[in-house]
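Limitations
The structure tokens in this dataset are predictions for the assembled complex, not deposited experimental models. Users should treat interface geometry with appropriate caution, especially where small molecules or nucleic acid strands are included. An illustrative entry is reproduced here so readers can see what is and is not provided.
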Amino acid sequence: MIPALQIHRFFARQASLLLALFLTIGCASDSADQIEDREETVFYLTLLNGLPTAQEVINACEQSHQSGLNCSSTGGQQNNYLSAFENAFGIDATTSAGTTCSNAAGKLPQITGANPAVPELSFGARICYFECSKNYWDSLNCSVDYSASLSDWSNCRPAVRSSFCTTTSLNDCLKQCLETGTVYWYVPGTAN
Amino acid sequence: MRRLLVIIPVFLCTAGSLAALDVRVRVYDPQENKAIPDATVIVLETRQKYYTDGSGTAVVTLPDAGFYTFRAIAPGYGILQPRLQATFENQLLTIFTSAPNEEKPDTGGTQIVTDQGIQVRGKEEKQNLSRYNVRLDEVKRIPGQFGEALRGVENLPGVNAPPFGNGDIVLRGANENANTYLLDELPVGYPFHLLGLNSVVQNDIIKSIDIYTGAYPVNFGDATGGVIAIETVDEVEKFGGHTTFTLWSASVLFKAPFGEDSDKGYWIAGGRASYLDQTLKAYIPSGFTLIPKYQDGQLKVRYNLNPQNTIYFYAYGSKDSLIAKIDDRPTWDPTTEPPPEFVGASVALDRVFHTEAIRHVYRSSAAFELDTRVFYHNNIAFTDGTLGVIDINQKLEDGYASVRTEATAEVLANYIYFDAGLEARQFRYRYNGIAARNTDPADQRTDLFDSNDATNIFVNDSSDALYTSGYGMLTLKYGWLEAKPGARVDYFGPTKQRVIDPRGTLALRFPTDTTITGGAGIYHRVPDPQQYSETSGNPDLRMESAEHVAVGIEQLLGNWSFRVEAFRQIYKDIVVEDIYAQTPVRLNQNPLTRYQEPVLYNQPLFFSNDGTGWSDGFEILIRLNKPEKKNGFYGWLTYTWSRSLRNDHQYVPEPGTNPVYSAEEKRILAFLDNSREIYADFDRRNIINLIIGYKVNREWQIGVRWRYTTSRPFTEITGDDGGVRENNGRPIFDPVYSQRTNELRLKPYHRLDIRIDRFFNYEWGYGNVFFEALNLYLRDNPGGYAWDSSQPFSATNPSITPEFGNIVVPTGDGQGLRVPLFNIGVEVKF
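Predicted assembly:
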């Protein structure tokens, strides 16, 4: 049995040590980062620079619209195509791709109580729709059953794509662009 | 582990040796907090007589370990004659002259014995900081909780609970799912049955409840909020039981000792079954199906092998099932139909948990205790339902087999104690079928008819992994100072993460019955099973973590106690819904397409650890204690001021917009943060509970409760989407929310409840008839900010719905008379 006096001395000696222990535990638990990570900020800005620009949207729109006009012309239903284009994207469509697409990068109508027909699309999403549409029109035999092809294309417009788009090639293209994106293969040990 | 397996049998084998021994018997007045000198102590079995010294203690020699009847005669106190268990040399047995107060003096980890029974206490006092203890009799008869004792914790400081909730509580601003419920330190799958009317643990198996609202010690794991630790009855002197009947369920409990006395142990068995489906049957309108059912059961057995070794067996569990369906009948009248999104919906739910355990407790001749448990705990949830684009059929099972051993040792009497524990769990996880995930968490109201808002996903998980834990804690006492430093280690196999949590408390106990305490610690919690699913969630999720800091002061004045505590808690790695988190590849689990497309690329993980948050506040408790069987006043007043904020760190689009992004943009946006902290959905700034009870005599008892809370925050609805979606021709108007999330609140909630108990006492027990009435002054409390999806945005949609809490009695003038909601119940104890 240790005499009480010895115990008192033992604790008196260890008191400061215990205090230091508690402070250490307390400090260790405060892991908040107090220093701004500038490298991380630069990284984000670099990523942001990779976002598509308005001019890229206009270019994609012009190419898509031109392909659509050509196809509809072959199919003999250019007016129907222009109506479908307006309905799909909510912008005035003419037979001039430059004029039509000059508005393509502007703010598209938002989802509101008054006009829910066209959801707002980011620049990247607009490019997806225009590029996939171009591929669709380019791959068609426009002189055969154009009405059905135009109807399929309309079913893949932004407001209804997720529910009604069944045209495999167009749907796959939009799904790849809007949902999956580029596939990156990560091979451990090869990054330098 | 191998060493442990060797140690346990050694203890089991050597524990049976017995010898003559000296024990110390102390006679103590808990009301006056003083020992009684010059009291006579007689051991009836040996006919030996002793006298207590100046410290109120007598050294008594006994021929052997075992149970003895001690007769204590003290001037002014009469004759006390309890039966005590002598276990080891120099053991301290305390004979109280009356029932002790809840805040007991340090008894050095021995038995506390009164004329009403034996309570085995820990080797050292539990921490005082952020821990509130309530006895069954204090919480069982609180007005307005339909007799559910577990709901009594909702009235304690730091506890935030909705008025008619499902039993989920918020402790000091931590998320509802961050708490852990324990029954004798064994896991409880969920605390309340469906609808929250009954808890899954019967009142009469509960002895007391410890609620730790923060900064709790290292022996509690897998929680970042608080711990609700239920301690069950551990003494049965004679055969008896309880039965209760309510409008929706009935329960029964039996208990009996083994043999003619309680020396060898006891058994307790209880069960409850609901008939809520039958009660509701007459009130369910045509076209609706609603069948809620639940059952629970508990079995506890204690067998004393000898004075040092005790074996326990536990088996308890619960099952809830619900079948609900709304027929798709073409009335086309939005004023009489249910909300259009629910027309044609159906759901079948089953949830079950069960725990089976064998526990061995060894108390040595020195101040040493070893508590070893082998148990199996399992949770099973089955869901089959259709609602809009959602079509779920899933079965989720997560459970574990566990071996846990906990040791408590007195290293240096009155100065140093040591607690340590080890636990190894074999974790079993199965998750199969079709699950549903929210794909647009930024939208506050998921449109279940919009495939952009929700999706079905195939699930096929099966894993068995280790989950191991260990902890150690020192209790250092010197004079007025008490320190409890400790650390805990957890390793969770399914996500392969190891965490180390340092925790500790410091207390200064002054002779004036004043205690100043402080404590801090780090806490971790395993995410929910569906969140770390390898095939439908994010298998790389880390454990959620929290840092707790609390300080407090308590003053005891006779039966009164006054306590103030302040706290701050920081939450990290909270699991949040994340539409940007993706995995490059994932195996296709869809049985129809997996052979054509075996690998899917850039698949959503749905969850990430991006969430953070914090909460702070202070609590005040003024409490008047009353010994259990005494008449008189008792009650408490609590006030909690707190705030709790969260940030899910998800990219927030420009206000007023909800754009569709390309996949490449989403990948970049995932790196963008937001600095917007919002009030947590459950945040309530002020909570007041006033409970006053008065036990008039053995026949009558009356109690009142007044509760005041700030309402929870909500986000204003500013418009609708024009009814884009429809359900079989019925338009569904989806609300458009303001960007100022959770910045508005409804008016405060308050109400007064009363309960009157009439007891009929008999030789075999008592009968109790009680009446309770809620919201006595008929306050129009706000229930919620409700949106009617069958109507467009207007001056009357959204609207504020009233809270349930009154009954309208039909009157001749057709106006109806509002009266308080009342409840009548019957309880029989035999």
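Some entries come with short summary sentences. For this one: Chain B touches chain A at residues 412, 415, 450-452, 476, 478, 483, 485, 502, 504, 506, 520-522, 547, 584, 601-602, 656-668, 671-672, 719-722, 724, 736, 792-793 (CB under 8 Å).
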